[in-house]
Specification:
This protein is mainly α. It has six helices and three strands, in the order αααβααββα. The protein is elongated and about 60 Å long.
Length: 131
């Protein structure tokens, strides 16, 4: 067999049960094989696996705040808030700016952040009947 003569491995997928999926299953399988893409998504969601981080992220989607104010709003110590801000910032979900000695945080202006914010609000609306 020469280079270029190989058959597409996706064309050979045979599922134990055929339900009329046809070519669509090959496209789905191709995406499933992109494990690194799913890992990237998992890393983003990992940042929001903590109630406090979700609260901080949600807050910073609505306003820009310093650690002291975030601490006061969440009734937490500044070091505890800083501990949660670090992974959010490292993942690109929030950004910061310095003004003198003060550092201000806000949600990053990205499609990913807007989508996560909308998702949080939708889930809260669906699961929290008092909202």
């Amino acid at each position: 067999m020469q280079i270029g003569d190989e058959e597409d491995p996706m064309a050979k997928i045979e599922l134990p049960h055929q339900h009329g999926e046809g070519q669509e299953i090959a496209l789905i399988q191709e995406q499933l094989n992109q494990v690194d893409h799913f890992q990237t998504v998992a890393e983003v969601f990992k940042q929001l696996d903590d109630t406090t981080r979700i609260r901080i992220f949600w807050l910073l989607c609505h306003c820009e705040e310093c650690v002291i104010n975030i601490s006061a709003m969440l009734d937490m110590s500044s070091p505890a808030v800083s501990h949660h801000l670090r992974p959010l910032k490292n993942s690109g979900l929030i950004v910061s700016r310095r003004d003198g000695k003060e550092v201000y945080y806000r949600a990053a202006d990205t499609e990913q952040c807007r989508l996560l914010h909308e998702m949080i609000e939708q889930v809260m609306r669906i699961t929290c009947p008092k909202l």
